[in-house]
Amino acid sequence: MFKFGNLVGFLILVVCHVVYGNPGDAILNLDAQITDIPGLGMRYDGSRRISNEEALRLFTLAKGRHDRASLSGPGRCATCPEHSDTPIVASPGSGSGSGSGSGTQWEVVFLMRIGLRTGSGGSSSISPEASGATRLSADMVEYRRLYNEGKLTNEKIDELLTASGNAMSHSPQAAMAYVASLGSQLNALYGDSNAGSFIPRFEQYGRLISGTGSVGQCSDIHFAMLKAYKRLVGPNAKAYLVNFQTASNLHHTNLIIEDQGKINVINYGEIMQNSPGTADLLAQNTSIPGHGLAYRIFTDDGEIDKMVAHVDTPLGKFLREVTTGRSSFNPFESTNYTTLTAGLQSSGGTAVRIFFGELGQGDAVMGVAVDLKGVNRLGAGFTLQSYLSSAIAYTYNTFRTPTSTETLHSGILYINTGLGVVSPKLELRGFTFQARTDLVLEGGVWMKSYSAMDEDDSRFEGDFNLISRTRVDASLQVTRRFRIDAGVEIELIPSFKTAFPSSTDGSSGTDGLAETLGILPNRTTVRLGANYQLAPDLNLFGGVTYQHTPLGGIGQVDLGLATSSFRASAFIRGALDREETPLFIPGAERSVGGNLLFCPGGSSTVTPMACIGANGSHSLENNSWNLGLTGEVRF
Length: 635
Fold this sequence. Notes:
By secondary structure, this protein is of the alpha+beta class. The chain folds into three domains: 4-67, no CATH class; 106-120 and 313-634, Porin (Beta Barrel); 122-275, C8orf32 fold (Roll), CATH 3.10.620. Helices cover 19% and strands 43% of the residues. It has helices at residues 4-20, 52-67, 130-148, 154-167, 172-187, 201-210, 218-233, 314-324, 513-516; strands at residues 96-97, 106-118, 122-125, 239-245, 251-259, 262-267, 270-275, 294-301, 304-312, 337-346, 351-359, 364-379, 382-400, 405-422, 426-428, 431-450, 460-477, 482-495, 518-535, 538-549, 552-562, 566-575, 591-598, 610-619, 625-634. Strands 2-10-11-12-13-14-16-17-18-19-20-21-22-23-24-25 form a 16-stranded antiparallel beta barrel. Strands 3-7-6-5-4-8-9 form a seven-stranded antiparallel β-sheet. Helix 3 runs antiparallel to helix 4 (154-167), helix 3 packs across helix 5 (172-187) and helix 5 runs antiparallel to helix 7 (218-233). Mean pLDDT is 81; it is low at 1-43 and 63-102.
């Protein structure tokens, strides 16, 4: 928020304008309390005297803020391409704001994002190698012998799988064929799950041999396939379970395997292969398209699974952007979709938008969204920021399956609400420090019409995320021209095990639920950057970003130049250990790229009238590249 010293500086500028007619005609004396004014395009270090050019820019900025007196905070635009932080907006004198009241001004805002990609990306169905299925047929003879002798155990199953892996030279392709054949056979005995735990694998194999009883649901079956694949390939196998919302049933679990730079999605006996450059590496087999808010990734933990990652779906990012103005807080996440929004945004934070878009897999999305914001002062300089965002959307897509063409219509009610506590900004001899913690709840309810639905399929589905995010930022003004910035952000989400029962097993739906819940540190991001003022309106900036995830670390180095109206940067990023970190983790694919942003209005207005941006990246692992274009107009 503006401090008293900022107000003094503003009054000096106004007096100067009255006396001299233009602040550029004199050198201004400024109060030393002014340290950083958002939108200025420079970092002022509190000197008592500044140049004519800087005085003119300060005057222009102050006049713009005076014309928009309803803003008592930084008033940064969360949806503007050049801004990445959440706005702090309050009504003057009341201690809270909701975007209403006298003095509120509205802007018409048009925003367009276009996502383009090319290269080796794509999805295709593949035929499993015959050798893996042949090996499973031979192993079933031994499984049957052990079962008849009462000696079939998980340990014996693992011994046979290890021997088969040796015989197949631990080939991932042969192993995928083995587990796909196993999944196809287990699917014939699909049924109830055990509450709170997986059906033991030796029971699954025994029921498969006898042809009686249930071997469990998707999570039970694909967990057995996951364990088999890891035994066949070895300890370095990059295989996981992915849980997501489907178009025709409740949440579904599949097996995902990375091999030779491609992601293989195995759904019982079907194998779908996604290559880098495709719009969604975790896109599921087209017979059961996923439309939830997130993919939840699991690995094995003994004879049960554990959640290790939470990855946003394209639809989840799309809905978050059209409602809150920001698709993700992950700096390595890409906006792999196209969208066009038009609406009204008030100086108090309220926004109403209509939106149209297309996801990378071809889903058409349209609807209307509203975003409400407010701030309450808590005392001692702390503030409580709140928002409530909602959208009503409609999606449509046509899917080609091996035997037919299916259509999916979905009506979506999406809600995103959050609370954030922001600390006062500590300032001491060029050092600043501020902390913020947020709790966000988002959820959606789907009403679906899918042409391939059976009578038992559910037309309603829900998906939700609960996210806790804590961020600490610090800055040190080393000299008038040189500044060092640092930041740390930790994101926590609830984790669960896919073993808890779903509605088909006849239980209450809560049996064993408590044993499956936990907390997952989804990612920890550390940023160290620097900014050097080469000229009054030219800054050199750069930095290093490191992100830790439970599946490996990701790093980025970037360097760029910025003026009050133009910003350009280049980066190199990727997993620090590609043998450890799977390709579907955002930012894991090693790539180089750059970002451009041009806002002709510069810092002469509080919010630029127009901005044009572009970003692109080229994979160092294959021939794919991604290009994004952004355009925004405000009036």
